[in-house]
Amino acid sequence: MNRLSEPYSSEPLYNVFKPTPAAAKWMAAQERARLGIPISSPIRNMWDVLENEGVRVMAWNLVTPKLGGCFIFSPFLGSFILVKRNLGDYSANMLNFVLAHEYCHHLIHRQQKGITCDPSGNYRRPEEYFAQWFAANLLMPEEAIVPRLTSYLEKSDGDINAEIVMHLALDFGVSYKAMLYRMGDKRIGLIEKNVLPKLSKEKPKQLLAKIGRSVPRLEKFSQFPNEYREMVFDAYRSGYLSLSKLAELLEITLEEAKNELQSRDIPINLGINSELELLSDIENA
Q1: Segment holding 131, helix H or strand E
Q2: 3-state secondary structure of 180
Q3: Facing residues of 59 across strands?
Q4: Is there a contact between 60 and 223 (Cβ–Cβ < 8 Å)?
Q5: Counting runs of H as helices and runs of E as strands, what totals does the chain give?
Q6: pTM
Q7: How far apart, in whole angstroms, are the C-alpha atoms of residue 235 and residue 16?
Q8: How far apart are CA 79 and CA 77, in angstroms?
Q9: What stretch of H or E contains 123?
Q10: Cα–Cα dist 4/9, whole Å
């Protein structure tokens, strides 16, 4: 049976009756266990986690300043997550948190069909707070932060400084700001409230230079889900598409299409096999 004829379940994977920080922590721990990810292991690539779970991820340039992503569910197509491709310096760590946030909606908010963070007034809805708490617990479990923090403190003067926070942010695949406020969360209490303002003024770029580390960067986020891209390449490999049609479907240049084919060891056919293909090539030139 064609998969598109089989409805996807809109039932949540977890039943959360009250969106509290404690419930978010519980759910994050349960999800790590379900995925087989130890509590002490960082999750540096949420994109892979989502696609392995059947969630299609797309990245577009979005002009709304505070909108980092949105979640859409279809009973016939499943879950989709759209993320902001133009996230500053294309920091993989910033993207990681956005994806973890949207993943929460996939797990428990499918009945709502679609959820978008609205910066004009609805951003502070309970489900958005819950998704933030879930993402923080999924990516930065307290049980994993403390041992690494202890290790860094043993090599310093015993005080938590901006450099240590930056090290931890890189270790866990999140931004400096995300790690700072996670450690300052009153439920964890690793950084005292009166110290947060001072540490929040530090510039991540200067800290990176100081500690000699760099943030992983994704030079180009895919506009289409990997599943769609691979279907296009398979169709080309089987002779159903011309080079120009492949480039059109992926919205890339002919040169980029050639490079993609070469990276996959797919032979490039520059010949014209039919009058229809010739007209297609001329139209798309």
Answers
A1: helix 126-139
A2: helix
A3: 83
A4: yes
A5: 13, 4
A6: 0.78
A7: 43
A8: 7
A9: none
A10: 13
Report which secondary-structure segment, H or E, holds 74. strand 69-74
- Diameter of the chain measured on Cα atoms: 75
Give the helix ranges, DSSP H, for 53-125: 92-108
Q: State how far the Cα of 106 lies from the Cα of 224, in Å rounded to an integer.
A: 18
CA distances from 177 to 166, 174, 215 (A): 9, 8, 13
Inter-CA distances, 28 with 142, 163, 192, 247, Å? 11, 27, 25, 40
Find out whether 198 and 231 touch, Cβ atoms under 8 Å. no
**Pick from 239, 233, 248: which is nearest to 272 by CA?**
239
CA neighbours within 13 Å on the CB side: how many for 120?
A: 2
Which tokens in the block code for residue 280? 């297609």
Q: Are strands 78-84 and 56-60 parallel, antiparallel or unpaired?
A: parallel
Q: DSSP letters of 189-246? A: -SS-TTTHHHHHTS-HHHHHHHHT----B-S---SS-HHHHHHHHHHHHTTSS-HHHH
**Parts of the chain with a pLDDT under 70:** 1-7, 62-67, 86-91, 113-124, 218-223, 270-285
Q: Using DSSP bridges, classify how beta strands 114-116 and 78-84 pair: parallel, antiparallel or unpaired.
A: unpaired
